[in-house]
From TrEMBL:
Domain called CP-type G: residue spans: 159-335
UniProt-listed CDD domains: YqeH
Record protein name field: Nitric oxide synthase-associated protein
Stored InterPro entries: G_CP_dom, GTP-bd, NOA1, P-loop_NTPase
Domain of life: Eukaryota
Region listing for Disordered, in residue ranges: 63-82
Length: 399
């Protein structure tokens, strides 16, 4: 086992374990144990490079129809081998859905005139589908599957679907960046990620820390995250507390990726609506100051919105100057999360937009009124009902 440290916040972290010395750095340090895979040098040589596993993965996902064999022509003097013709189409750069012109209610739809014009000028990679155009302007478009979605609901991604689509990662050389929402840590935590990643290193990124209350002790948050992933028996390379909105911790993630990437493809994994697209946009924005490749990639970056399931297909991004691709993968829809049971038109009102505030129950005014009426105030909660908007009511019978 090896031990690594990672910077995130501007305070020192004092560890209770006597085995570790007190570490001081300009940010807060999060410690995590991990299993480092055995190093193997990439073969050197000249000539055209073979397609990477990531490029093969992207090609498979963009195929509308199964591979067909082109039959040999009859009465041909030349013996020609049958060719494999995989029907592959361009995808929307905002959500990864294959472009299509037949169903205007489905993701990937573009008008036939636009499609033919872009195809004529070899610009299909610059096309944004109609759904993504609406999402980018703040409209709440129903997602897929259980949200009363469109006829193309087969693109709804479950945990098992994602494991099957990314099964090649176990034997490939890749760097996994796993995202989890700090506001819903256990609910958004994908299980069995190590079964998917194999021996590949995993970087844990905790998103949306800007939503935590102002007086939050991030040292305690970091300790809690490390304890939580230890209980879940997941060995990771490092842990980062980040905010895609304020860019807190993003520089540390970039440094870790550049250090550990070593020419490998980088895959961003996470459940739906944990902020994968926002995280990638924050990465590209920060990297663009020093990397012209990342600056160019910013022109066609994934669309981000409050709708779960915004990303419907794998999106390949040329984000690194030194080789390797960045892949935004579809978010996994977990049935136990709030987004799986709440209609999409209500998600915008439930999604936190500012820092969370702690509330105490009951208030001193309510206690005073109940005391005057002779109500029991042994612990102040008996007989109270707590409403969370129009979504939840909690009746305290006895406490």
């Amino acid at each position: 086992m090896a031990l690594k440290t990672l910077s995130t916040f501007l305070t020192p972290l004092s560890l209770p374990n006597p085995k570790f010395p007190q570490i001081h750095s300009k940010p807060c340090l999060i410690l995590c144990e991990f299993s480092r895979p055995s190093k193997s040098r990439l073969p050197e040589g000249t000539g055209a490079a073979a397609p990477s596993p990531g490029e093969k993965f992207l090609e498979r996902q963009q195929s509308f129809e199964p591979t067909k064999l082109i039959p040999k022509q009859n009465n041909s003097k030349k013996k020609e081998k049958p060719l494999k013709a995989s029907i592959s189409v361009a995808s929307c750069y905002g959500c990864g859905a294959p472009l299509q012109t037949s169903d205007n209610d489905a993701p990937g739809f573009v008008h036939s005139e636009t499609y033919e014009l872009k195809k004529k000028h070899h610009q299909l990679k610059t096309v944004l589908c109609g759904r993504c155009q609406l999402l980018s302007h703040g409209e709440m478009i129903t997602a897929v599957g259980g949200h009363g979605g469109y006829s193309g609901g087969k693109q709804f991604i479950t945990a098992e679907d994602l494991r099957q689509k990314l099964s090649h990662l176990r034997d490939a050389k890749a760097l996994i960046v796993k995202l989890v929402d700090v506001v819903d840590f256990n609910g958004s935590f994908l299980s069995r990620v190590r079964d998917l990643a194999g021996a590949n290193p995993i970087i844990m990124v905790v998103t949306k820390v800007d939503l935590l209350p102002r007086d939050t002790d991030f040292n305690c948050v970091g300790d809690w995250v490390v304890e939580a992933i230890t209980r879940k028996k997941l060995n990771v390379l490092s842990v980062h507390l980040t905010s895609s909105k304020s860019l807190v911790g993003i520089t540390g993630v970039i440094s870790e990726i550049q250090k550990e990437k070593k020419g490998r493809d980088v895959y961003i994994l996470g459940s739906a609506n944990v902020g994968k697209s926002a995280f990638i946009n924050a990465l590209l924005k920060t990297m663009s100051y020093n990397d012209p490749v990342a600056a160019a990639a910013q022109r066609y970056k994934p669309v981000q919105s409050a709708v779960p399931g915004t990303t419907l297909g794998p999106i390949q991004i040329n984000a690194f100057f030194g080789g390797g691709k960045l892949y935004d993968t579809p978010g996994v829809h977990l049935h136990h999360r709030q987004t799986a049971v709440v209609p999409s038109e209500d998600l915008s009102s439930l999604a936190p937009k500012s820092r969370l505030r702690g509330l105490s129950f009951p208030s001193s005014q309510v206690l005073s009124d109940n005391t005057n009426k002779g109500a029991s105030t042994v612990n102040g909660l008996n007989g109270f009902s707590i409403f969370w908007g129009g979504l939840v009511r909690i009746d305290v019978l006895k406490s």
